[in-house]
Amino acid sequence: xxxTNRILIIVTNADEYEKVGFRTGLWLGELTHFxxxxxxxxxxxxxxxxxxxxxxxxxxSLIISEVSHTVGxxxxxxxxxxxxxxxxxxxxxxxVSESNVAAYDAIYMTGGHGVMFDFPxxxxxxxxxxxxxxxxxxxxxxxxxxxxxxxxxxxxxxxLINGKAITGFSWREEELAKxxxxxxxxxxxxxQKRGAKYSKAxxxxxxxxxxxxxxxxxxxxxxxxxxxKAVVKKLQxxx
Length: 239
What we know:
239 residues, Rossmann fold, six-stranded mixed β-sheet, two-stranded parallel sheet, 8 strands, globular
């Protein structure tokens, strides 16, 4: 299959925690840190969402980014946020159902707590993910993004992640973030219930990336950059 040098990025449309009403949305750094790495390597990217349209941003992702920028750590998120052309990519995203697998070499699911509310419910996202899998293309996700893999089933009825090495936002990190009472489920436990071989970093919020063939997952926001590097490396190794 011909290489396209394009990556499809999936982001959330959900803007609040259903039980408590806190604001949520896309964790911006999980988009920008991956995007920076892939763009520098020469890949083009399109951004889609389950429902299409404007993408909400998790306000905490902007606050944490600003603190990190002030103390001299990173700055990518702030720079992208202040770039009107870049942020316009989130103004009117196409629906996942409109995406064509043949146009991409990989799919990447970003996080932010919002994805817990719409990724697992999106039949279109599950169907698209299976097509990427069946086409032997890379499937990547970070932080809460693996929630998009929970309901993905193969043609034989098995869960796509059954028996796969995987990671995602840990329950301990959820507790430390004080969101354990607000989230709709325990991502770590749900991944394991579906037969995934879950692992996590020794210390919470440390970067941790797991590769299992063409499945690449990262544990938390700090892992997004490293997921990007892993995806680019895998793409460059492909014949």
